[in-house]
Write a structure and sequence with these properties.
alpha/beta; Isopropylmalate Dehydrogenase; two-stranded antiparallel sheet; 12 helices; 12 strands
């Protein structure tokens, strides 16, 4: 089977980390075609809009979408912002479940953020007296489907799910809690607890190892996933997957476009490559290759670190270390001292 991956390089360091990801992807034992399309600020410059119709059509037809980064001061103050393309793409592909893993030593948290509802997609406007409003809206069906996705994921992990809301204040959160409780009845093997968003944020900072899967709505998830990333190494290393009920999903690093280092060749591609690992697992069904890639990225972070993590390596050198590790992924490990002694005649 030939897989089709659409790459949206975007802006700033996006093209550099995207190039590293394509380099790695084409090294893997996969039959895959890669198609690059304009997106974000680059698409505004080229086509006058951040999500051209041709780009959206290509994404709809793909098995997965790999996204670099969008935005930058170049487009600040314009009538159309690059980020509008990202919001539009998420809505068009209906990728309602945003997965944000945060892993470091004894911490292994998976945040499941509802991605196409709530405050970012509700009604908004400006009244005659100058009042500005943004509306947080949720339908029960929107909550149910992301809750089921989170319970399924928790079932395959440690069987614990923390649903985060603000039910002591917000009506949408009270609905959220009711629907999550209803869905929980279908997953008796998963232990459910509820937490208010402010206490959950504090607990993520002080006791992140208490969490397994965290389920929450769009705005809270946006904030808490960044907190979890900061606790486990920083945004520069964090990956994400945005999934719907079918293909394609959107896979992207959490970091921004970093215009201050764009073009310098020193951007850390680790988050992009970890997003590629999520693409392999959730988009193409190759968890085995995803595991190999995660191992190779961890190796490169130690052996060939870029300046942001205390090294001097270039983006290209980091990617080459990953490629080399993948090429030797199936090679047998050298024998231990004990094995050598036992094998000696």
């Amino acid at each position: 089977m030939t897989f089709r991956v659409v790459v949206l390089s975007g802006d700033g360091i996006g093209p550099e980390v995207a190039e590293a990801a394509v380099r790695v992807l084409t090294t893997l034992p996969l039959d895959v075609t890669v198609e690059e399309r304009p997106f974000g600020g680059a698409a505004i410059d080229l086509c006058g809009e951040p999500l051209p119709a041709e780009t959206l059509a290509a994404c709809r037809d793909a098995d997965a979408v790999l996204l670099g980064a969008v935005g930058g001061p170049r487009w600040d103050g314009g009538k159309i912002r690059p980020e509008a393309g990202l919001i539009g793409l998420r809505r068009a592909l209906d990728v309602y479940a945003n997965l944000r893993p945060a892993v470091q030593r004894d911490v292994d948290v998976l945040i499941v953020r509802e991605l196409v509802g709530g405050l970012y997609y509700g009604r908004r406007g400006v009244l005659a007296d100058g009042t500005v409003f943004d509306t947080c809206e949720y339908h029960p069906s929107q909550i149910e489907r992301v809750a089921r996705r989170a319970f399924e994921l928790a079932s395959a992990r440690r069987g614990e799910l923390c649903s985060v809301d603000k039910a002591n204040v917000l009506e949408t959160s009270r609905l959220w809690r009711r629907v999550v409780e209803e869905v929980a009845a279908d997953y008796p093997q998963v232990r459910l607890r509820h937490a208010l968003v402010d206490s959950a944020a504090m607990e993520l900072v002080t006791n992140a190892d208490r969490f397994d899967v965290v389920l929450t709505e769009n705005t809270f998830g946006d904030i808490l996933s960044d907190v979890a990333a900061a606790v486990t190494g920083g945004l520069g290393l964090a990956a994400s997957a945005s999934l719907g009920d079918g293909r394609p999903g959107i896979f992207e690093p959490v970091h921004g476009s970093a215009p201050d280092i764009a073009g310098a060749g020193i951007a850390n591609p680790a988050a992009m490559l970890r997003s590629l690992a999520l693409l392999l697992e959730h988009g193409l069904g190759r968890a085995d290759l995803a595991c190999d890639l995660e191992f190779a990225v961890d190796l490169a972070l130690t052996a060939t670190p870029t300046p942001d993590v205390g090294g001097t390596a270039t983006t290209e050198a980091f990617a080459e270390t990953v490629v080399d590790a993948l090429r030797h992924a199936d090679a047998p490990l050298p024998p231990t001292t004990e094995e050598q002694w036992t094998a000696t005649p």
